[in-house]
Amino acid sequence: MEALRETLEETWHFYRRTLSLVVKGSKAYYAWCFFLLAIIMVGVVFYLKQHDMGLIATNLTDQVSWGLYIANFTYLVGMAAAAVLLVIPAYIYSFKPIKEIVVLGELFSASSIVMAILFVMVDLGRLDRFWHMIPLIGSMNFPKSLLAWDVVVLNGYLFLNLLIPFYLLVKFYYRKEPNWKFILPFIIASIPWAVGIHTVTAFLYNGLAARPFWNASILAPRFLASALCSGPAIMIIIFQIIRRVSSIKIEDGALFKIAELIAYAMFVNLFLLTAEIFKEYYSDTVHIAPFKYLFEGLHGHDQLVPWIWAAMAMNVTAFYLFLVPR
User: How far apart are CA 326 and CA 322, in angstroms?
Assistant: First the structure.
């Protein structure tokens, strides 16, 4: 109990010290913070309108029920899962360049999960329904409901990605050696949990038999492969910015290793995409309609066609760039 009390006191002191640093910065820093706050306030104003009217404010129907909210939710879950690409080389293989920045990756993962949960909240329509999603309190129909499983894995992963970096940062702040017997099981658990959050999200989608485009067994591995491309790619950009605007040193070796891992993931992603396209076009069943709508246009509706072909071109170009770094 004494050790626990001391740890909590150290954590609280570290947290207060961190908050005091957050409110200090240059004029450019304050301008950036106010710019972000302005965006948040605009979002709140529009959300209040939706809270009053309901989800009809989004103009979505049962045919196209997932718009900006669920698209961003899916993307952000992938961002969060991508932290595993830093955790494994850092903690399992003790790769020093990445081990020095893995905490940044875990904090990035935690912030992505928070944003993902917020998108789920606004997709509920009214905030007073949120209590239904709280395990043991709301009526989530657990364990039958896949949405209930998604809530459990997302909040569990958020807990892990807050506990691990905060514990390590507090210990490093006081120049104390971390108790690896305590924290290592949580680190190990975060690896399959990272796979789990995107797998459960994929199951949530491909369990919809009435939506053949999502009703594909290949969806979960494709989600994971694409997440291990896009998530670390954003991290590389963030790390480049961090080492230019701060005194934090990030070695080139760490960025090159992340880029190498992205190349492997990108190959798997493109291979799975090719397999999926082959299956749909070669069998040419009625279920090909969503693919034709996306890649060719259907019954005169072709607004998404330029976007998907641009995305395909960017995927192939990115794979080539990571495969041939020079």
Answer: 9
| 270 and 162 in a common domain | yes
**Segment 66-95, tens digit of pLDDT:** 888 989 999 999 999 888 888 988 888 888
- The domain total for the chain is 2
pLDDT digits (tens, 9 = 90+) for 150-192: 888 999 999 999 999 988 888 888 888 888 888 999 999 999 9
139 and 41, same structural domain?
A: no
How many whole angstroms separate alpha carbon 253 and alpha carbon 264?
A: 17
Whole-number Å distance between alpha carbons of 185 and 322: 33
Q: What residues pair up with 298 in beta bridges, in sequence order?
A: 301
DSSP E strands, the chain: none
Are residues 8 and 133 located together in one domain of the fold?
no
Percentages of the chain per state (helix, strand, coil), in multiples of 5: 75, 0, 20
Residues 66 and 44 in one domain: no
Phi, psi of 147 (to 5 degrees): -65, -35
**CATH code assigned at 283:** 1.20.1630.10
Q: pLDDT > 90: what percent of the chain?
A: 40
Burial grade of 314 (CB within 10 A; 0-12, 13-18, 19 or more)? exposed
Q: Give the tens place of pLDDT for each residue, 48-72.
A: 888 888 888 888 887 777 888 989 9
